[in-house]
């Protein structure tokens, strides 16, 4: 991650639907440590009975969402 930041990387994916909470927390801790914005991915490739698009996506508390400067209403917070 240090090399990524040095190359001007500014965000990383932190949350995915079928992810253990500890893995999500670890990724959030890396984002905080390296001052990276956090995103979430649906991992959606096609309709499926096993996963609903956008389900089980939330960002852990303490991370800064990648969309923070996009003019989105802050009351729509998806952090947990």
From TrEMBL:
SUPFAM superfamilies: PHP domain-like (SSF89550)
Source domain of life: Bacteria
Protein's name in the database: Phosphatase
Protein's organism: Vibrio parahaemolyticus
């Amino acid at each position: 991650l240090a090399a990524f930041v040095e190359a001007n990387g500014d965000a990383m994916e932190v949350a995915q639907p079928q992810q253990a909470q500890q893995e999500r927390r670890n990724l959030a801790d890396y984002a905080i440590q390296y001052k990276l914005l956090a995103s979430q991915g649906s991992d959606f490739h096609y309709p499926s009975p096993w996963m609903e698009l956008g389900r089980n996506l939330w960002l852990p508390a303490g991370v800064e969402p990648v969309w923070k400067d996009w003019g989105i209403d802050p009351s729509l917070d998806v952090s947990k």
